[in-house]
Inverse folding.
């Protein structure tokens, strides 16, 4: 009997545990190790910031669900990996050995790379539910005391969809309260142009997002490097296409929601051959680490190069569809090895992302993520709102009921087909 340990019970880790369990049954032991006993549906965190969801809506205890599926659950968290000994050291100083390890720990948030940045200092985040809840207190204060606000994605950020989503739900919420005119909004981003999304653009993303921002009177600064954030101001260097500082900006703002760059988590940092210089896990085409082939990784914690070089550094987004396909690849590859066969399954690095604005939304689809693409499509409209809500409901159901089937292939692609047909009809 092999012992397979999965670290991280998030968007990638829980489906990983269920899919593997459905493939290997009770012949092999599966252990899920996370930091805490809760699951947070991260894509809904921006809604927590504007009070459209509560913490209880987007976070719940998972111990019973995981154990009911025949998977052992440990919520102590991993302090350090010792890959040469096939051993994990946990935060309570206990140890756990493994035959196969799957790392799905998501990101470490690199707030420390910009002076004054982070929820403990002068900017907010929606990357965790703790951050989103703290941001909602500041948001309520802004609603009481309207003043200019900033939304953005820092240099090195890769997660641009939620930055756009947050900008647009802020706009919608302020309109709902009738105070939009009193809260000038500025979007600051490392992207070279609006709608780049860390993907070199998707379909007509630049044109459509610029139009949306203009319509909603959201100002923007692109090619932006944030140099400092204080309680009253955000300091920004704006770069030219030639890579020189074109203009420096000092923008007055008391409410800042700025997505940071990501790094790999501390438990694996600095392990030679396992991680790159930013602590992301290096994987081959089978999602296995070349130095330690019994270690696999998926999700935001893996190393993927930027889609293209930009004047101010941007990263490639790692979103649900590709995470799901990494889960499937790892499940089949571990199963193949357990059966004495060669690994043969590869993940498809495709991007599908929904950003909801409450009254409308955008969906972008880049298949594959790297150009040239077979499918390069961007949609804006109310249907995205319903698709995003369905995504949240289905994923929650999946976690609670141990559903092992992939979600995107079966469900989201159908939703996208409906949207695309509507889009085509609208354009006739
Ligand atoms: C605000 C936001 C909105 C997003 N919206 C979308 C969207 O709409 N659609 C989409 O496709 N993608 C979206 N993404 C991108 C991506 O899908 C999410 O970031 C997703 O949560 C990544 O899944 P993951 O499994 O890699 O990491 P996570 O879901 O973050 O899970 C990581 C898990 O590892 C655990 N962990 C961390 N360190 C340790 C440790 N040392 N020991 C044990 N456990 C540990 C954490 O507690 C957590 O449970 C969004 C991202 C953000 C930040």
């Amino acid at each position: 009997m092999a012992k397979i340990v999965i670290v991280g019970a998030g968007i990638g880790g829980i489906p990983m545990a269920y899919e593997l369990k459905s493939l290997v049954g009770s012949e092999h032991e599966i252990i899920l190790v996370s930091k805490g006993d809760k699951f947070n549906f991260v894509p809904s965190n921006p809604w927590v910031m504007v009070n459209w969801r509560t913490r209880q809506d987007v976070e719940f205890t998972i111990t019973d669900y995981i154990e009911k599926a025949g998977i052992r659950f440990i919520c102590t968290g991993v302090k350090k990996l010792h890959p040469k000994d096939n051993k994990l050291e946990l935060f309570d100083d206990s140890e756990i050995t493994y035959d196969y390890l799957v790392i799905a720990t998501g990101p470490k948030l690199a707030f420390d790379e910009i002076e004054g940045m982070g929820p403990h200092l002068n900017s907010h985040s929606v990357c965790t539910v703790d951050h989103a809840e703290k941001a909602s207190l500041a948001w309520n204060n802004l609603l009481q005391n309207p003043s200019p606000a900033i939304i953005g994605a820092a240099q090195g950020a890769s997660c641009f969809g939620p930055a756009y989503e947050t900008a647009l739900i802020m706009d919608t919420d302020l309109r709902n309260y009738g105070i939009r005119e009193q809260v000038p909004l500025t979007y600051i981003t490392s992207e070279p142009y609006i709608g780049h999304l860390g993907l070199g653009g998707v379909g007509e993303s630049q044109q459509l997002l610029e139009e949306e921002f203009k319509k909603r009177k959201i100002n923007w600064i692109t090619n932006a490097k944030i140099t400092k954030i204080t309680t009253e101001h955000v300091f920004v260097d704006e770069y030219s296409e030639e890579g020189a500082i074109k203009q420096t900006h000092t923008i007055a703002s008391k409410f800042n929601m700025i997505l940071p760059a990501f790094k790999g988590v501390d438990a694996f940092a600095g392990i030679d051959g396992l991680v790159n210089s930013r602590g992301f896990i290096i994987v081959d085409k089978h999602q296995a680490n070349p130095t330690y082939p019994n270690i696999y990784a998926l999700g935001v914690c893996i190393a993927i190069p930027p889609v293209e070089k930009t004047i101010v550094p941007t990263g490639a987004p790692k979103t649900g569809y590709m995470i799901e396909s990494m889960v499937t690849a790892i499940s089949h590859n571990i199963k193949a090895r357990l059966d004495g066969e060669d690994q043969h399954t590869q993940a498809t690095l495709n991007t599908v992302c929904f950003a909801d604005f409450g009254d409308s939304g955008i969906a972008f689809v880049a298949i594959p993520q790297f150009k040239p693409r077979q499918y390069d499509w961007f949609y804006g409209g109310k249907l995205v709102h319903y698709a995003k809500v369905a995504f949240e409901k289905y994923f929650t159901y999946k976690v609670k009921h141990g559903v092992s089937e992939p979600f995107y292939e079966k469900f989201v692609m159908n939703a996208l087909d409906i949207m695309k047909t509507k889009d085509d009809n609208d354009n006739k």
